[in-house]
Amino acid sequence: MSKVHKEKRKTTRKYQTDFLLLGFIPSSADSKRPECVDCGLVMTNVSMKKSKLFAHQQLKHPASVGKERSYFRKKVELRQKNAPKTLEFCLKKANEHNNKTLKVSYAVSELVAKVGKPHTIAERLVKPAMLICAKELLGEQAANILQKIPLSNDTVKRRQIEMAENLEKQLVEKLKVSKFSLQIDETTINNSALLLTYVRYIDAMGIHEEMLFIKKLIDTRSDTIYAAVYDYLYDNGIPLSNLLQIATDGASAMTGKQNGFVAN
User: Fold this and answer.
1) In a domain, 13, yes or no
2) For every residue of the chain, which 3-state class applies, written as one string?
3) Residues 6 or more apart in contact with residue 196 via CB below 8 angstroms
4) How many domains does the chain have?
5) What count of other Cβ atoms lies within 10 Å of the Cβ of residue 224?
6) Which PANTHER family does this UniProt record tie to the protein (predicted)?
7) For every one of its 264 residues, what pLDDT tens digit does the chain have, with 9 covering 90 and above?
């Protein structure tokens, strides 16, 4: 018989669930090795026998001998609760809170935009109201979490701009591959000429209508209006071939046969 066959093979042992009755749980460093729930001693592969684990329990922790699983489970829970928090754990928790507060910040900013209220209402009314409700109904800890939600005037304004830009980007991408029609109207507010452009298109077997853009005009001449619409479509890569119809208010600058916007 060869020398290789004569050598005794090394036995590799693994953690067993019934080790818990002896006061041992899977080690946090290596789940295959048992760790004493009382003193934190991690047993080696050689010592991973029930007889040696029981001997450790009798010698070091005699009060736990013969206890039921519930006794050791409570010890495990208490140990986890009192364990010092690692940097990784703290960063993970911080990121979880940051992600949640960031999501709420965007949601509140969207609500402020939908009701047409000034940006300051979030910081002056919405957030104080949330803190009062949380403190009275859920406790101080919940209020402290809500306190971290960023809802300052500048933050809400920035959130709304980001969401508007994102929605516009999604709409532009749809118009690049879809047929659409435009509804165009020019108006004057505080002696400033504005061009309002709406788009109607088909998406997911449904007809949708959205505001495409608002632009300030130097005047309301037809060629100025045409340049504003053409430049927007060209700059965003929307092909003119996808434009099917144009609806206007019937003003001469829009519908004139020679120099109207439609004629251009």
Assistant:
1) no
2) CCHHHHCCCCCCCCCCHHHHHHCEEECCCCCCCEEECCCCCECCCCCCCHHHHHHHHHHHCHHHCCCCHHHHHHHHHHHHHHCCCCHHHHHHHHHHHHHHHHHHHHHHHHHHHHCCCCCHHHHHHHHHHHHHHHHHHCCHHHHHHHHCCCCCHHHHHHHHHHHHHHHHHHHHHHHCCCCEEEEEEEEEECCEEEEEEEEEEEECCEEEEEEEEEEEECCCCHHHHHHHHHHHHHHCCCCHHHEEEEECCCCHHHHCCCCCCCCC
3) 184, 185, 186, 187, 211, 214
4) 3
5) 17
6) EPM2A-INTERACTING PROTEIN 1 (PTHR45913), LOW QUALITY PROTEIN: ZINC FINGER BED DOMAIN-CONTAINING PROTEIN 5-LIKE (PTHR45913:SF19)
7) 445 444 455 567 788 888 888 888 888 777 788 888 888 788 887 777 888 888 888 888 888 888 888 888 888 887 777 665 554 555 566 566 678 888 899 999 999 999 999 999 999 999 999 999 999 999 998 898 889 899 999 999 999 999 999 999 999 999 999 999 999 888 888 888 899 999 999 887 788 999 999 998 888 888 888 889 999 999 999 999 999 988 887 655 555 555 555 555
CB atoms within 10 A of CB 89: 11
Q: Do 78 and 105 have their domain in common?
A: no
Domain assignment present for residue 165? The answer is: no
> Measured between alpha carbons, how far apart are the two ends of the chain, in Å?
99
Asked whether residue 184 is domain-assigned, the answer is yes
Where does a domain end: 51, 82, 113? 82
Residues 238, 185 share a domain: yes
Same-domain status, 236 and 222 = yes
